[in-house]
Amino acid sequence: MLYSKLLIPTLKEDPAEAEVISHRLMLRAGMIRKVAAGIYTYLPLGWRTVRKVAEIVRQEMDKAGAQEVMLPAVQPSELWKESGRWDYYGKELLRLKDRHDREFCIGPTAEEVITDLVRREVKSYKQLPMNLYQIQTKFRDEIRPRFGLMRGREFIMKDAYSFHKDKESAEAEYWNMYETYKRIFTRCGLNFRAVEADTGNIGGSFSHEFMVLAETGEDFIASCDSCDYAANVEKAECRPPEVVDTRRVPRDMLDEDDGGELKPIEKVHTPGKKTVEEVAEFLGVKTSKLVKTLIYKYARGVNAIPPLRETPQLRALFPDHGMGVAVVLVRGDHEVNEIKLSKILETSEPIELADEETVRRITDAPTGFAGPVGLSGIAYADDALRGMKNFITGGNEADTHLKNVNTRDFQASYFDLRNIVSGDACPKCGAGKIEIFKGIEVGHIFMLGTKYSEAMKCMFLDDDGDNKPMIMGCYGIGVGRTAAAAIEQNNDKNGIIWPAPIAPYEVAVLPLNINDKGVMDAATEIYESLKKAGVETVLDDRDLRPGFKFKDADLIGFPVSVVVGEKNLKDGLVEVKRRSTGEALKVRVSEAARKAGEILTK
Ligand code: ATP
Ligand code: MG
Questions:
Q1: Using one digit for the tens of pLDDT, what is the confidence trace for 207-220?
Q2: Run of H or E residues at 161
Q3: pLDDT band at 325, cuts 50/70/90?
Q4: Cβ-count burial of 526 within 10 angstroms (0-12 exposed, 13-18 middle, 19+ buried)?
Q5: Residue 155: helix, strand or coil by DSSP?
Q6: Confidence class of residue 309 from pLDDT cuts 50, 70 and 90?
Q7: Is residue 309 within 8 Å of 347, Cβ to Cβ?
């Protein structure tokens, strides 16, 4: 392709709205343009890369035995009502009405539509297993669309759904997809890791996220420095501490500064000191010596049974029986894991910290001074508290904290409800220590079980004559996000360094002066032989100074450039340059195409 004919509106300056490198470089290299928040047009270069990622996905999915279909982007509400997700999905679901006032949504995912297809068309165990996938535009009305293609509202996803007659078959397909995903991301040239992810109510290790390691990632990965354990921090379980009963703590387990004893509670005046940091500094202790008391409000849902630990007193505070309140305790330097807490509270709706008014009603104190001692009801405490003694909590009174509080002093049930942190013992091997990395989730595989097949009656006739719900798995890949993640991992100050398999074009031929006939002839000869060899090549035929051409070639990130200049050409030579290392080789004109091809395959 001739550069002069291509729509490549490169930008010299960094666009102000782009916070992360991939977003910046995709805008600067003229690959994408924003149309509305989280909605983009893909320009020729951007679309070529997206298509290449999609093609790798397609080839590997086909090789793995999956079949490609194309489901509609607009989906009727009836199906979503059958699965129960019409009400549950919330504001991320873009809903609309047609001229007959019928409700639809733009698919954020397609479990309902595919389950509907399969329940109609597949009846017998003989037709199973089956894995169907599509590569299709999805819409999710994300609260904070950002980072370009990384978190868009409209984005391209490969979604696959498999159907099985039994657990063994479903598990086999799960691992088949696991291996397929490894091949896909390896072929895309990514440095990635498969990590255990939250499985909702399925349990076991049947959900993995494929994470591209990058500083700009929005996910945190807990990884053991000694065994192969790796999990999303959302899901990583914390190993409970050794001490179980602090009423009878063995002497040798107590810090020396505690004098080996559980001391009586002491009230301390802490004027205006509300945060963990302020109190710790004021009292001259580490934040790990404190216990934070957080009061959460959560929706129980109309039909949900109130959780066991909610007391009549707490409930009396909220006559609206749909709301619940939970008092949650974690060590001062730990954070509540709201996903774990939601599960403990048996709620599927988002939970949130209570407002000032609620905190006052429960603790009789302004926010910042809540503590478990003297509160009615049973608190939800993190397991780590069982290993603590003589700690500091709020005093349920303005400007007051309590010292030497122990688990003997309040009623609590203990759970794993915090985020794992760096330095924690590995939950799997126990011997290693946890390290935390940031990652970009590019793929997600998930064992669905019978959630959708039961709700939507997707049944099959088994060989024993029984009608049974199919067991399902689902498998997603963010196609645009994968392209963006590749840039996050492969760039320098001059621009993108594409892994060759997903580069928009493989080679740029750069004649340094198009008005020199010798230069243009040699450049054209190389360009033609690259094209003939099937190499995707751009000939930069613009009448521009060499500096501009080099800048654009580096910004766009052609894996290989062939530089044709008067000086080298006098000796019959041109320069073949590799973008990733900057290394340049002088070769004869007739050798240039072969050499470029060789670099690409290495
Ligand atoms: P996230 O936690 O990042 O919101 P998710 O868990 O909602 O992701 P899935 O529902 O598992 O994502 O979707 C499958 C894949 O689709 C993800 O692994 C990701 O690569 C991609 N994806 C999800 N949301 C977006 C988005 N807003 N923009 C671009 N890609 C996305
Ligand atoms: Mg999401």
A1: 999 999 998 899 99
A2: strand 154-164
A3: confident
A4: buried
A5: strand
A6: low
A7: no
3-state secondary structure of 89: coil
CB neighbourhood size of 91 (10 A): 10
Residue 46 Cβ contacting ligand 1 at under 6 Å? no
Structure-block tokens of residue 582: 């900057």
Cβ(106)–Cβ(157) under 8 Å? no
Percent of the chain with pLDDT over 90: 84
DSSP 386: G
Instruction: Determine the 3-state secondary structure of 348 from DSSP.
Output: coil
Provide the residue type at 238 as one letter. Answer: C
Structure tokens at 545: 């100074």
Could you tell me the pTM of the whole model? 0.87
Answer yes or no: are the C-beta atoms of 260 and 254 closer than 8 Å.
yes
Sign of the C-alpha dihedral, residues 449, 453, 456, 457?
Answer: negative
Span 388-410, average pLDDT: 95
Query: For residue 560, what are its two tokens?
Result: 């290989």
Q: Span 431-458, mean pLDDT?
A: 96
Q: How confident is the model at residue 255 (pLDDT cuts 50, 70, 90)?
A: low
Residue 308: count other Cβ atoms within 10 Å of its Cβ: 9
Segment 6-21, tens digit of pLDDT: 999 999 998 988 889 9
Q: How far is the CA of 478 from the centre of ligand 1 (A)?
A: 6
Question: Alpha-carbon distance 508 to 564, whole Å?
Answer: 11
Residue 301 is predicted with a pLDDT of: 52
| C-beta separation of 261 from 248 below 8 A | no
User: Rounded to the nearest 10 degrees, how much is the dihedral formed by the CA atoms of 54, 57, 59, 61?
Assistant: -140
Q: Are 71 and 116 in contact (CB under 8 A)?
A: no
Cα–Cα distance between 431 and 424 in angstroms, integer?
10
Q: Is the CB of 148 under 6 A from ligand 1?
A: no
In short, whether 220's Cβ falls inside 6 Å of ligand 1 is no
Omega of the bond leading into 427 within 30 degrees of 0 (cis): no
The pLDDT of residue 282 = 96
- Does the pLDDT value for residue 257 go beyond 80? no
Residue 106 Cβ < 6 Å to ligand 1? no
- Which of residues 257 and 500 earns the better pLDDT score? 500
By the 8 A CB rule, do 559 and 599 touch? yes
CA distance 348 to 299: 8
User: Is residue 164 within 6 Å of ligand 1 at its C-beta?
Assistant: no
Q: Give the number of the ligand closest to the Cα of residue 234.
A: 1
Reference 483, options 455, 466, 460, 502; nearest CA is 502
Contact at 8 Å (CB) between 405 and 289? Answer: no
End-to-end CA distance of the chain: 24
Distance set, CA 54 to CA 188, 441, 500 (Å): 10, 17, 15
* pLDDT for res 377: 79
Q: 496 near 488, Cβ under 8 Å?
A: no
**Contact assessment for residue 472 and residue 449, using Cβ atoms and an 8 Å cutoff:** yes
Residue 305 pLDDT > 60, yes or no? Answer: no
Which tokens in the block code for residue 297? Answer: 């409000």
